[in-house]
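Repro case for the chain-ordering regression, as requested:
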Amino acid sequence: MILQIAQKELYHNITTPRFVTGFVLCLLLIPFTIVISINEYKSKVSVYEIEKKKADEDNLARVYSAYRPVIVKKPTPLSIFARGISYNVGNRVKVFFGDKPMMTEGKAESRDNPFLNRFFTFDFVSVLIIIISLVAFMFTYDICTGEREAGTLKMMLSNPVSRSVILMGKLLGTFLTLIPMLIFSFGLCMLVILLYPSIQFSASEWVRIGLMFVFSVVFLILFMITGLFVSSRVSNSGTSIVICLLLWVSFLFIIPNLANYSAKSFIKVASVDNLNFEIAGIEMELEKKLSEFNKNLPRPDWDLTWYYWGNADGFKMIGGATKSFMEREKTINEFSEPLRIQYADKKWVFRKDYIDKLQKQQRAAEYFSFLSPSEIFKESVSGLCATDFDSHRHFLDQIRAYREILIAHYTSGRLFGSYLYFNQQNPKDYMTADEMVNFRTNGLCKSLEEFNSKYGDWKYLTVDIPNSRPWAWEPLDLSSMPKFSYKQAGVVADIRKSVFYLGLLLILAIVLYYLSFLSFLRYDVR
Amino acid sequence: MLNYIILNDIRQNILSLRLQVIFLIMTALFIMGSVAYVFQYRSAAEEYRIYSDKSRNGSAGMAYELIRQPGGNITSEAVEMQNYIFSPPANGFIEDGKSQYIPNTITYNAFNVFGYSISRNSGNPYLILSQDLNWSFIITIILSFAILLLSFDMISGEREMHTLTLVLSNTVSRSVFLAGKYISIILSSFLLVLPGFIISLLILISSGILNINEMVIFEALGFIVAHIVFIGCLAALGIFCSVISRSSNVSLLICLTLWSVFLIFSPNVAVFSAENLFKVKDSESIQSEIKSVQEAINNAAPEGSWSMNGNNPFYPKHELRAKNQTNLMNAEKKIRDNWYIDQFTQYRLASYVTCMSPMSLFGMVSESLTGVGFDRFMKNWNDLHLFQLQFLNWFKESDRKDPKSPHWYNPYEVCSTSLQKVKDEEIPRYEEKLMTISQRITGALPGALLLIIYSVILFVISVALFNRYDVR
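-- result from build under test --
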């Protein structure tokens, strides 16, 4: 009996203009959306390729103090479906020793013309939400009220058929009407993506797309049952549609924006200035300790070097200095590098506080917005596509763990205290100041004192120290260094949170169905 | 007769459930939006104050090496890269023009205005994009939906209730009747939001962040007038949908389809057309173009153009160095300025594409009236160019008076111009001038006129269709 009612419902619905309108909406809204998302993804990929090339060049190190790997995260094609925060954050992180990575850097905007950000475009999941929920309400707002007004409800109930059968049948029929629209939306999306052969999905990504479809079905059922519930509570189609549409606008437009705006306004984030101020304070303390240590070391016999190339985070390339100068540098590094790593942990306390406050604001916005089932669905799909906040945090956590591994490798290999940390000359060839003056003046001068008093001009230093020019050094063999590889969370891990929320949605749907059923039992069919 | 129709309809509307529910929702939104705005504005203004208290903002994101002398002197003031960051607008409760997402920082020194960027200091990159709950959002999205809900069954609903025949059996012409309906929708919608506006203004005034001056009154009143034009356009659209069909369900479907299309379709089409039809070079190719031009200049530069003597400004090679740096700056400036103009044009063309949607038109009108968004940026951009010339003149004048300067102007470095000390108060500083009322009105007029044209066209077509409408 249920199937018969469902069949009748299906045939009836197909002939109404709302059925055609649903398909027309899909056809109008989805293709443009996908094309724009694909363009955004492609520009992200080209930025990734440029940054990867640059990172590979930067990662060639001539001395161990230059090796601070730059890690670039590959954009996922699933970001075409759900944008998440993947276009708010950069995709590049440099692993420093003196500081723990806090956030990603790099070009975040996917559009070259920043003024185009004024147009808030919709990604696939947003458009899907709008179409599916609207169409679900369009078909279910008059499940009870429409039949009552047409007079056919009392005729149906005068037969020996129970009210629960009728309700289930009508719901099933409506479901069978709406599934083609959902399939059409996904099909249209896939068709447009097929037009771009450069976009390939891996096997696990296909699984995620399949799961996205399953989640959409749950979402569709929930909105259908909501429409059914409203219809069973009122006696007039006009009232029913108005309530449904007001619910629709609230769920889709009011609650998400209200949630974000309230979170931004009421929950304070720490200011970057404050953070930088604290970091500057810690760095001053570090500087004091380092200069104390430097002061207590003996001066080298010739306090200069011919080639010096230095930069942040302990990077130094020194060439052509005397033995005592080199030894002094080695001693400084043995002390300073582990100290800087210690101070990185101190800085991390403040950095973590900053991120925690940002996270708090984001979580508050998220939980508030979960008043709307469409936001729950959107968040679940973002989780599936690995473009939500949790997968970003997962990536950063992996980088921090890698940094620890790299530091451990340096420490166990005593790389901080090796000459290769800053120089590629053979340590056996290091000379004292006098030997160096003798060598460089080609025997003209025998000692530094003699050189300074009699000659004084560097034009007499005609001979170059072999292998002392840093830019002529070959890049080091870094094959034994631990390399970073991004392990994306498996499908199960990504959907754990989503499955929980979708379970909630399913329970809500069941509860609403039960309430609709109770209302329908008392429904006045005259 | 017309008055009677109007008053009758308004009375019916006010008593209807839908208007009451919509009224509650909108008033709640106005209250929540205003309260949240008060908190948000206080913290944003505080941060901005702290930020601009330091009289400099440090070097820009572009990687120019600065050779700074300790202690401020005229030249270091002139060559230091400064960032002008836009202050948070005080009228952001009306319209914010997505100001957090479009460029709000302009980098300049006395010799050149280099470029623009988005300062992300106070945003949270982990939040997804969302709109602020300001007046513009409430009107553009919620009120437009409400008007469509009110008007979709003005004609087709009356036909289904069989009251249309009864009304038209009176001595009232169809056009007058339709006009009465149209005016009643406009007035009902206005009554919906007027309490919201008043409550919102009261909350803002009592919180102390809004000081009543001429500009604020103009903005609030201007926005209210503009929103009446917007209501008129949407009411005409609603009546049009209602008159097209004989069944109110179909009218509703058409209304909802049009609303969704206007909301979603127009920004997507704008970006699509910008990226495919009005293409602009991407930043990577601009960078490589600049690099190759600058390499050519460096290779052609005479011997000694890179020499430097920190102690002696009159070191002869400094003149070559200054010339080389100026050539480098001019080459980069030419390429970048052309690129910027292309970007501005691309944005403008894309925004013209959105003119098919009344929501986007109203957004543009309210942005012009409140002086935020792209218009504000362009004003600051042009004004900053003028200021830069004045700044440069001041620098050159002051440098001319110094006999210890060789007057070899170098746009990036302190090496061959005056090292006179200068007091902070004497240095010219850029101050933003708000757009005048007449500038704002001229900016908003095209959009408002287009909305009025849409309303007139839709209403005329509706009258024509209604004259043939089968009222049985």
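Ordering looks correct now. Residues 6 and 180 of chain B are 5 Å apart (CA to CA).
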